[in-house]
Write a structure and sequence with these properties.
Length: 513
Amino acid sequence: MTKTYRQWIGLVALSLGVFMALLDVTIVNVALPTMVRDFNESFNNVQWVLNAYSLVLGVTLLIVSKIGDMYGLKKIFVLSLGIFVLASAINGLAPSLLVLDIGRGVQAVGGAGMNALAMALVAISFKGSKRGVALGILGSVIGLSSASGPLVGGYLVAQFGWRSIFYVNIPIGIVAIILTLIYVDEVPDISRSQKIDFAGMFLSAASLFTLIYGLILKESHPHWGWLSSQMIGWFGAAILFFIVFIVVESRISQPMINLTMFKNPHFVGTVMVALALGAGIYSYNTYLTALMQNYMGYSALGAGVRQLTISIWSLLLGPITGYLGNRYSKKWMISGSLFLGGIGFLLLANAMTVKVSFMALWPGMVLMGITNGLVNPLLNSAGMEGVAVREMGMASGLINVFRQIGVTLGIVCLGLVQNKVYETYLTQHFSRVNMPHAAAKAIHQALVNAGPFSGHSIAFSSRLSQTPFGHAVQQIVWQAYANGTRAVSLAAAGIVIAGGLCAAFLMRNRKAH
């Protein structure tokens, strides 16, 4: 078998790993209601199945990236695959929510290695114009996995139950391990010349943990102020750990992260685009799924099928984008694509009415999908340009960390925007409903406490629907939700447009070394 065939089969193996790692960030969303019933737990408790994965993934990405750079990217990638497969089996067999939460944390450690190191392995394995195409394909897999979670999860949960979303990883993971061992070449390690920076690893993990955990708390308690006593401790600790991390890393000879990478405007522009992509495109999918399922009445599978309008573009555009990125300016393609995404969000904002339909949503969703399908592959390729081989794992890890923080930050901030507009509309219009004062106060408070996602189940309950004022309440709740989601769409437009400006002003037109 020729070297070329070996490279492309190796790319398949690496893509399988990335697909599983990122799919498991979103696939669990549609299974949470079923888990609530099976474990007889509250939704807030069960949500930690999702939070545990996101938290550990964000905390361990940089650590695994550095270990891969030091001891061999292929070795650590295969080890990560093994951890992921083993944890998937534990999750599928989990007898309790606690075991499942622990298993998800372990699974995220494997997912971090797969996610962070695959890009570096591809960048090192392919040379010249092939690198752009290969990274384009990997980028399309990243975009497709992140966007197709509702569809894949909806189908598996509906047909085989929630445990199947973990069992399906086992055969795919085993195939990926075998293909990686046979067809992916190892990168010479540099462990003999470097020492593990334990202080840097601890401080980076502590900083990311306190930041992401604080954001998770904020998401669960939207009425807590950013400077409230509950929040200031976590965010203050994150800032403190980060400052100490910078001081320590700048004073040792073999730091975990080469901080001079951030003196390069091109690399800074790349990670800012990754942040905007996570905060704008990926986090918005959460609100689009909630709109389709909670308010438009689609099943999880039905919502997933319609979201193919977004995800299919990653599959179609990845290889093409890699080819175009070799011929034209990645900087302006990325910037222009993000501006196109901004237009898509403006179209979605305009479509948000109480009579919203899929036919009104699909033009904006198409532009979202094209943006994702173009930016992700180009971002991977641009981020690796000019990076030394010994630092490619870390460069890949940083891009993924910023993307993951963007997702968490976006979900929180967009949620706060939606909550604020939703509650303001309810407060301003609820007094106009002709109903007893005591009932109005109780229903209004229940809707505020439930929040935008769950308000529909209260407003459209059979008990309230049978009252003389039920229809009026339902119209107000629908309009409040539509207004909130319109505001979310406008905020997402601002985020991706800001990312486009970062690309335009910071990124450079350059070729890979």
